[in-house]
Amino acid sequence: MAGDRLTNKWEKEFLDQAESKIGTPMTRYLCPKCKSELTLKTGKKGEFWGCSEYPSCDYTADNVDGRPVRKKRYLCPSCQNPLRRREYKGEWFWGCTDYPKCKITLQDEDGVPATTKKYPCRACGHYLVRKKGAKGHFWGCIKYPECRNTLDDDRGLPKLRKSTK
Ligand SMILES: [Zn+2]
Ligand SMILES: [Zn+2]
Ligand SMILES: [Zn+2]
């Protein structure tokens, strides 16, 4: 019982001290790639976590409530290079990192590239993705500009043209 009281006293002293001396408790996070320490950095888009061994290690993670959260990587449906989220005139979209060699762009849906809805391109056998053009949404082939097949958008679905007529 005496031991408990001692522990509690020690704990209280420790907590008192912690409150007065440690303003911002820092938790250390390690880089999963090279096991070095991750440091919180500030970039153009706000805070993010980067490896302290940068530039020899290029690991980065998003900052979510002070913790590093690994970015999800999305691959280009055409060439399998990673996609990058970009902003153009206040609208987010996903573009291939192999641009301008690969001109794939995908619509952004809540921070995720809209690749879930796939509809086959009847012209070339690849598939169509929903895009936003000057006149609104439409469906274009992922092989654009090699394949210029497009379909009108009908409330989020490609409007299939009737094969007859
Ligand atoms: Zn690293
Ligand atoms: Zn690509
Ligand atoms: Zn096509």
Main features:
mainly beta; 2 domains; 5-stranded antiparallel β-sheet; 4-stranded antiparallel β-sheet; 1 helix; elongated; binds zinc ion
Largest sheet: 5 strands, antiparallel
Trace the largest sheet across and list its strands: 9-10-11-12-13
Shape: elongated
The total beta strand count reads 13
Secondary-structure class: mainly beta
- Which ranges are low-confidence, i.e. pLDDT below 50, for 5 or more consecutive residues? none
Query: What count of helical segments does DSSP give?
Result: 1
Distance between the termini: 92 Å
Radius of gyration: 25 Å
Strand share of the residues?
35-45%
- Count of the domains: 2
Order of helix and strand elements from N to C terminus? HEEEEEEEEEEEEE
- The helix content is 10-25%
What is the arithmetic mean of pLDDT?
A: 80
Which hetero compounds are present in the coordinates? Answer: zinc ion
GO molecular function: DNA binding; DNA topoisomerase activity
Keywords: Isomerase
Domain DNA topoisomerase type IA zn finger: 31-61, 75-109, 121-154
GO cellular component, one term: chromosome
Explain this structure.
GO terms for molecular function: DNA binding; DNA topoisomerase activity. Keywords: Isomerase. Residues 31-61, 75-109, 121-154 form the DNA topoisomerase type IA zn finger domain. One of its GO terms (cellular component) is chromosome. This is Putative DNA topoisomerase. The chain has 165 residues and is mainly beta. It folds into two domains: 28-71, no CATH class; 83-154, no CATH class. Helix content is 12%, strand content 38%. The protein contains one helix and 13 strands, in the order αβββββββββββββ. It has one helix spanning 2-21, and strands at residues 38-43, 46-51, 60-64, 67-70, 83-88, 91-96, 105-109, 112-113, 119-120, 127-133, 136-141, 150-154, 157-159. The chain has a five-stranded antiparallel β-sheet with strand order 9-10-11-12-13, with no helix packed on it. β7 (105-109) and β8 (112-113) form a beta hairpin. The N and C termini lie far apart (92 Å). The model has no long low-confidence stretch (mean pLDDT 80). Residues 31, 33-34, 36, 51, 53, 57, 59 line the site of one zinc ion (ZN).
